[in-house]
């Protein structure tokens, strides 16, 4: 009887957990320990790096830990759609300490997407939850691994408010090496430069 | 008893909610195709299953990956439906036909779009629904932004010129010029150089030199205003002109409040004279400060502050105009003459990159912005018969669609969408607050009920609180439904197969066969072999138009 109750409790817990994560998924396909990359016929990969810095204190490192990002499909022929939140399971694994750089990889169906925001923990005076609005587009082509650039986000305080500015840089040569060296699944794959816009 | 009433109320609420959702679904369905209700006697039975318009994105991807056949067939299938997006499908089809060099089909598609885009009465019944609180902007028929109408007219004119139909080509150009003047910013009005140049050429071809000169003059002005060196200055100047106009209106309002009820005749006359002398934009000038001082015994601090601001703006505008005049001295507009010179019997049009991408931002997608995808092609050289080379110096540059799209000013619809977004936000907040109150009252009712069970008193109070909680819950639900039904999402349909830049190279070629090479290089002048093109053309008597798209 007790074991049955435990089983029921466990099932309820699983249902609650899956319900709470509904709408959020992890497309985080690249892991250091994953040697292969499997894509469906309609899927492609987008890689980009992120540099977060404090404009007021340029020497300060690791100012922001990204824990998730929000994407939205851009299709002019569809009604305004839902935003999808993607969680980054192991943020530290994709952080290169010496370069103070985050590496992102996403597996998505073909289409144009808007990166709405990067979500995470901002370490300024206190560590706070912060949503970095980005609002930039990138394309996903089937079977293609594309590099979308380096998203530089500078945080600063203006008028007593924490704000940020975003800039996109083409660091294809530098970042391509970082991705290929960091993830075995990418070592023998061609990466195409197709910047976020 | 109380529980029974509660159950009844919950059931009724569920039924109301269900009916509301059904109503919204049926309303959305009525305007899906051709704006007619499905199943109405006029609607024809579908011959084959219609392709959902969402799949049009596949056609875009096919076009940019070079699969023109797939892109063309998909857009043709959509155009067959003759729905509210008919003009959009045809503009897209026109771009595909241009890319494959089928000018006749391209003209036919662009003309189909042209008639609808310039017909204000077509699909007008859909517009009232789109502006309503529960309607969506994209439910109205696509007629394009001013920049899209400008480029549609441009292509129609160019292709009619190719057919030597100069009168109709000129009519299309004039229509394009009219569409371009339908923008907010005075400086951005009529800044599409190519339209004026084409008009000047067509007038020359129609043997009308005086009109040709007039259009050429305007082409020069448009070229200078839209020249990259001037764009920043013009933007700043336009911003300041808008601000000046706003401040002048505010000052006017303030002065009208402060005007004595019965002004003397001569005072009134003086004021009217001042306004008239300043022209349409500068209604109030700080130059009239002393005169105003005689009209009003004492100016308020507010008026004085406005006058200072206006004076500062006027000074800044004069400075910016001066900078623009200085810049203009460094810009050579000589190349423009080559287009109007009808001895140049070929207009070679090269289209580069992707046109502006229109997409929504904001909490409810109520704000529209444009972006452009970067492209590698920078320098284009045309080599004819392996000997004559036409480089950047012989090319009319800087006709970029993104600049035209982003300088057209705000739309009337933006204000409506802002209102809808504010309504949605407010009703969501009210609904949330009311649901919180309802929950609190429900808790209180439960506590009172428990108290009544133990002590035997307070039963009536508990029932009262429960009814009040239900009442508030109903109001909260009504707000939530209202909020859910409000749709402030902006319409982002746009002509996505437009190029980013249109370059024109006027040239003189003898009649007969010629070999053409297009050499494309990037910003560092490195050749991009995969973008180069090589082909033969047959030059005929009269005007010849060659259009080539470089897709990357």
How many strands in all of chain A?
11
Please report the distance between the alpha carbons of the first and last residues of chain A. Answer: 60 Å
- Quick one: which chains have the greatest interface? A-B, 18 and 27 residues
Helix content of chain B: 55-70%
Helical content band of chain A: 10-25%
User: What portion of the residues of chain B fall into strands of 2 or more residues?
Assistant: 5-15%
3D shape of chain A: globular
Structural category of chain B: alpha+beta
Count of alpha/pi helices of chain A: 2
What is the β-strand count of chain B? 9
The averaged pLDDT of chain B comes out at: 82
Largest sheet of chain B: 4 strands, antiparallel
**What series of H and E elements makes up the topology of chain B?**
HHHHHHHHHHHHHHHEEEEEHHHEEEE
Roughly how many Å is the radius of gyration of chain A?
A: 19 Å
Domains of chain A (count): 1
Low-pLDDT runs of 5+ residues of chain B are 21-47, 266-293
Describe this structure in words.
- The complex is a heterodimer of chains A (197) and B (552).
- With 197 residues, chain A is an alpha/beta fold.
- Chain A has one domain (25-193).
- Chain A has helices at 2-20, 172-182, and strands at 24-25, 43-54, 64-73, 84-87, 95-96, 101-109, 111-123, 127-140, 145-158, 161-169, 191-193.
- The longest helix of chain A is centred in the N-terminal third of the chain and has 19 residues, at 2-20.
- The relative contact order of chain A is 0.22.
- Chain B is an alpha+beta fold and 552 residues long.
- Among the domains of chain B are: 232-330; 343-440 and 471-552, no CATH class.
- Chain B has 18 helices and 9 strands.
- Chain B has helices at 2-30, 56-64, 68-80, 86-100, 103-117, 124-131, 146-162, 166-180, 193-205, 209-226, 228-258, 265-277, 289-295, 301-330, 334-340, 401-406, 412-455, 459-485, and strands at residues 346-352, 357-361, 367-371, 379-384, 388-390, 501-507, 512-521, 533-539, 544-550.
- In chain B, the strands form 3 sheets. In chain B, strands 5-4-7-8 form a 4-stranded antiparallel β-sheet, with no helix packed on it. Chain B has a 3-stranded mixed β-sheet with strand order 6-1-9. A two-stranded antiparallel ribbon of chain B has the order 2-3.
- The radius of gyration of chain B is 31 Å and the shape is globular.
- Residues 21-47 and 266-293 of chain B have low confidence and may be disordered.
- The chains are: A alpha/beta (197), B alpha+beta (552).
- Chain A binds chain B through residues 74-80, 110-112, 114, 135-137, 139, 141, 195, 197, and chain B through 53-57, 61, 65, 136, 138, 357-361, 364-365, 369, 371-374, 489-490, 492-494, 496.
